[in-house]
Amino acid sequence: MLATTEFALLRKIAEEQAAARAPSLVAAITRGDGIAWWGGRGEVDGAPPTVDTQYRIGSITKTFVAVLVMRLRDEGKLDVTDPLDKHVPGTALGDLTIAQLLSHTGGLTSESPGDWWERAAGGDWATLESTLDDRSRVLRAGKQLHYSNPGFAVLGEVVARLRGRAWDEVLDEEILAPLGMSRTTRGPVAPHALGWAVHPYADVLLPEPTPDNGAMAPAGTLWSTVTDLGRWARFLAGDTGDVLHPDTLTEMATPITVDEGDVWRIGWGLGLQLFRENGRRLIGHGGSMPGFLATVAVDPRSGTGVLTMANSTSGVRIAGLSVELLSLVDDYEPVLPTEWRPRSDVDPALLSLTGQWFWGPTAFLLRALGDGWLDLAPADGKGRASRFRPTGVDTWVGLDGYFAGETLTLHRDTTGTATHLDLATFIFSRTPYDPAAPIPGGVDPSGWR
């Protein structure tokens, strides 16, 4: 990046590391196919941290587990509406759906019963399952967002049951190896940072334990580096390779529930955390474990991503810092629009359908996209807009917006001339309330007056 941009970013993390008294702090900006900038402050084992220094990333682990679950869905091995009992029978949580567990809407307790699991060695699945009884349900399923770490421990077991091996083995094979993330591991592998608690009133440190969390590990056990987490940021920005279909990633990033408040700032999709800051919508996840804090987030519109990691239990404004770094990049080096070029994949047969259509008296514009796709949006840019993918002769399915999942059908007369569009019973005609179109309720025979 430009020298002025890099210095502004470095100054921001330097101020945060000093003010929060973090033993070390690293951050990076991703764009395109790599890391555009990275910086670090503080020390790890007496030397500055590098892009290869491991930090524990806590609940960012959940995003990997969620992708493993959605891969199973895409293969037809489960459906997100399936009850847990279908895949892990016999638990006290069997009626909860996979989607409720992914979106933290199952009403489960936020933490596992017993000792503070993040600082204690974890037991096996049988031990954890024995503690997840009816008392683990603190809210009615589907009532509201209630973040649950045990919910993702359960999802890790779902992956293990359907794949026939431990969830982290599946992770290595299906995600980490294909993406080249060789320094993302279940436990620390040198060089790695030690986790510290910083005394609130003195500049001294207390080491934090980092035990393996057993069956709770899918909720937050992974360690990673700037290089590897940068690759994961690019994944979340859409560079999914052969690991996940882009449509599935979009589905995961669609809000299912939001935190309470007059204006929502944090929500969840299927395993992904959603942020709204300063008019910007971000997807990713935060993470914290004793001794460590981390965040990864991307702006889907620009493709710019950010990651931050620190080896301190608290004090660092890890999420706020990430947003500020993104804002700096947008101010100093905004992403330029992609150059317009004519397309070679527009179906010539669709050109006669483009232009103005009317839903009642409201004007819409139909545009032809590549590969037979269509875009239907209000002419004034305000209101219900969706893209549509072809599903057959003169039929398309909505991909986003109000009409997601709905079928758009083109009707023709006996000569083959297009007469009207039918979209979820809404009739779109070439003129407002065309009397020749089958508009439910009819058109006043006196016409316009």
TrEMBL record:
Pfam families from the UniProt entry: Beta-lactamase, DUF7586
Family annotation (InterPro entries): AmpC-like, Beta-lactam-related, Beta-lactam/transpept-like, DUF7586
Superkingdom to which the source organism belongs: Bacteria
Stretches that traverse the bilayer: none
Domain DUF7586: start-end pairs: 346-430
Limits of the Beta-lactamase-related domain: 12-315
Protein name per the record: CubicO group peptidase (Beta-lactamase class C family)
Source organism (scientific name): Herbihabitans rhizosphaerae
